[in-house]
Design a protein that fits this description.
The structure holds two protein chains of two kinds.
Chain A lengths: L1 H13 L41 H5 L5 E4 L7 E4 L7 E5 L2 E2 L20 E8 L12 E7 L10 E10 L4 E11 L3 E12 L2 E2 L5 E2 L4 E15 L2 E15 L7 E17 L5 E18 L9 E3 L1 E17 L2 E21 L8 E22 L5 E16 L3 H4 L8 E17 L2 E12 L3 H5 L3 E3 L4 E4 L7 E13 L3 E21 L11 E25 L2 E13 L13 E10 L2 E10 L17 E14 L2 E10 L21 E9 L1
Parallel strand pairs in A: 3-6, 24-27
Antiparallel strand pairs in A: 1-2, 3-4, 5-6, 7-8, 7-33, 8-9, 9-12, 10-11, 12-13, 13-14, 14-15, 15-17, 16-18, 17-18, 18-19, 19-20, 20-21, 21-22, 22-25, 23-24, 25-26, 26-27, 27-28, 28-29, 29-30, 30-31, 31-32, 32-33
Chain B lengths: L1 H14 L9 H8 L6 E9 L2 E8 L3 E2 L1 E11 L9 E10 L5 E2 L8 E3 L4 E8 L8 E10 L2 E9 L1 E2 L8 E5 L5 E8 L7 E12 L16 E4 L4 E7 L14 E5 L5 E6 L5 E9 L5 E3 L18 E6 L1
The chains are: A mainly beta, B mainly beta.
Amino acid sequence: MKKSTLTAFLMLLLGIKVNAQAPSIFNDSTKLLKEVKVTANAKKKIETDMKMAVTVDEFLATADNISFIKRGAYAWEPLLNNMSTERTTVTIDGMHVFGACTDKMDPITSYVESNNLSAVDVTSGQGGNMHGATIGGSIDMTRRSTPFGLDKKWNGSYQTGFEFNNSQFFNLGNVAYSTDKLVADGSIAFRKAGNYYDGYSNKVKHSQFQKFNSSLGLAYKTSPLSSVRLDAIFDRADNVGFPALPMDLWLSRALITSATYKQLFKDGWLRALDTKIYFNALEHYMDDTKRSENLVHMDMPGWSTTYGMLAKANFIRGDISSEVQLNLYDNRSIAEMTMYPQDRSKKTMFAYSWPWVTTRYGGLSINNSWDFSARSSLLFGGALGLNYNRSKYVEFNWIFHPGAPQQKTRLLPSLHASYQLKLNQFDFSVGTGYGHRAPSVSEAYGYYIYNSFDRYDYIGNPNLKNEISYEANASAGFKNEKFGIKAKVNVFSIQNYIIGRVLSLGSPMNYQSVGVKGYTSLSHAQLFNFSLNANYNILENLGWKGTLTYARATDEKGGNLPFIRPLSYQSSLSYRYRDFKFQTSVNGDLEQKNYSPEYGEDATPAYTVLNLSADYSFKLKNVSAVLQVAAENLLNQYYSTYADWGNIPRMGRNIYTSLKFKF
Amino acid sequence: MKPIAICAAIFCLALSACTKKKADYQAEIAKVVPEYIEFKEATSIESGAYRISIEALNGKFYKGYNELRIKVSDKQSKQEVKVSAVTFLPIITKADGTKASGPHRYQPNYLASEHYFSGYAVFTDESGANGEWDLYLSFDVASTSYRVQKRVQVEKQANKNLNMVSFKAKDGADYIIALVSPQKPKVAENALVAGIYRYNPPLDAPSGEFPDPGQFSYAEVGGYTLQLDPRMPEPSMGNHSSLNNKDLVQKDDGFYHGVVNYTMTGNWTLNLIMLNQQGQILKGTVVPTDFTPGVEGVKSELYIDILF
């Protein structure tokens, strides 16, 4: 029995996953917990095939439905299904964290580090409604947690490395202590990078960064079937350059904390309860004093504080397994704009770009999986959320929208269903979804938020309607021992699509801007995403993998929407020989033809990047180690992608090395 | 547990570092823009058995527009005294001995319900090197006339939102435009109130001992229009403007009312064009509307700077 509860706890602490893509299936044939099988989607280790010591951004970039808007070498903004963070939910262990920067210089992914995460769950479309209302889907980053009662009490790992292109030096350390009753783990990460060089070997100024990240976790087993866990992540970034923006980051800090209580049940319908309360506080201070081109300086500090709770219950009854989650949170976003005239003794000019905006959300999500035959299953679910906004200094919003209400409550429903069929080596799925989302703080209450991509100042509109998405998706795949191929397609038809449109009224405020845009709703917009994945094991130790993605998005008049990835490809070969592993990969985009001049885009030429890597695994006494030497962009190609802010060039040839110890 | 304890220690250390404070927006606005809503006695004059008290906002006279309340009471009983034919005339004696006045209400009107005479004065300068102000008042109590004179201190108006401008217009007349309201503008739509006054040059030679009001006459002009284009003049603001502003037109109270929107706190210039009843431009020029970062905003020939 002891062994069985231990197994259960292993499962518990790994986090039992039930989601629309891959529901957990509890084998109910016996009452013994050792029989509990969790066939959740395999957790991806936080490293890519190519690179052992990746950043969170680099890791996410390997998912075929994620792309990035890049403003420099740091803090890339993830796009899921070619939709930005307003249309997706990005969470850490289900916790909502909202960036404190009006210019999206701090996506949530920038506040974690690869060595304090164990997995990232990406769910496309309405299937991702578990953590709140979404259109494009959800990205949930799972914090690393050590299981109770490991054979070895102490575990640790240490990784260090150097990247030659931007002189990035990094150190990542993890340590964990595990007994039957108590678990403690901690991680520390430090990265420091200088300016990087592009494919013409020119220095890209203001692309340096420095980051410190630390996390702590403490878990205590309160009974054989329950545990409490306290978690904290602290992240600090200093002196981060944003070459594509007219300002840099002086300092950003985040404290992300939570307390979790988990309870498992041996019998009955209810199998697991997971309750979490959380608090996080982010602060983000921009700095434009290092840019000599700025005749005027502007302080733009931002703060974001969130309190929340979530409660999750897993049920099983016959062929149906269900997951119910309650999400509650309260966020306050504040951003200030203070300009200093050349004569500093003169009065400064002040405005709020986020006038103390409160967002409260409460919602209940349910997802079910019904395995009605051995070959087919139905996934279906829904969510209902209540979203409340209040702007404290609503006078700023009244400038452009006189009489707009100070408070607004919105109802956000969501529904989805998909049918999955397995026929021998083939699998198929078709699905559909419907959902609403509320405008983001910037879209509804933003005030003169400067967007350096199209060089417009953006004004929020508190009266915007909910964005409504109708979605359809399908997939087909074939898999045998040597070969696998899978095609996925999804289409989103979005009503009241929120986007910035030029306002003839009003004049710009920010130094570099050319005009004012107001967030408005297009009557509708369409997005289409397609991906094709294939792998082929040529020999036992030689494998090939390839990915092809394509997306297209248009507005109501058939014009192109911005930040849509052109046809892109990736192909890689890996070869193992004894303790060595060699990899080579080619990736690139074709020419971006469907660009949107209206939103500041221009045509981006095609590019191809070649990468190489070699790993050597060895043992020193009882410490296992891996040494990697590799090169990215081996041919030193000069390129920038469709989503590079201001067409800043990407990094040229980058040779890097890293060494990892596990003990 | 030692490595974990070290982790915890680093964690605590990192947390205790300091950061920037949030702006205290409400306090900030209150500090820069003092708002006076209370009338207090600014000066008093005694004549015979009577005491004349002149009240102004904050108990002080400031350069620019001043709303005034004049009360006459019995020195002993401190009771209000029934007086009639009250006149009020402020005069500045400049360093070279010349005398002038500013727009004022020569015959303050009695508000029975409020028990005071309501008047105003636009002091065109503060007291000091430029000259000294004297107030000349006269009133009748039961067919006896009283005349008093008092030197008063006119202070600098620290609140730029109550600025004034004096100028010669194309019709050859001297005008004064004084801002009356808002004292404390907000980042919002603000009701803008101003008075427009024209100097009436004297027709006859001065007469009498007491200053001759005919020499110091101003008229509240009627039926004019003030076209408004508010802009932020700082080079850094690149000629930034706002929207939904409304030109000032005269209402029943004699003042000119319009709407100004301020998009942020800071220095603003109210660029004005003054039109007469026929719509002819008497003063002011159209300002460029281009966004010109780094260049100080071009101002109209007629403007008033404000700050909040």
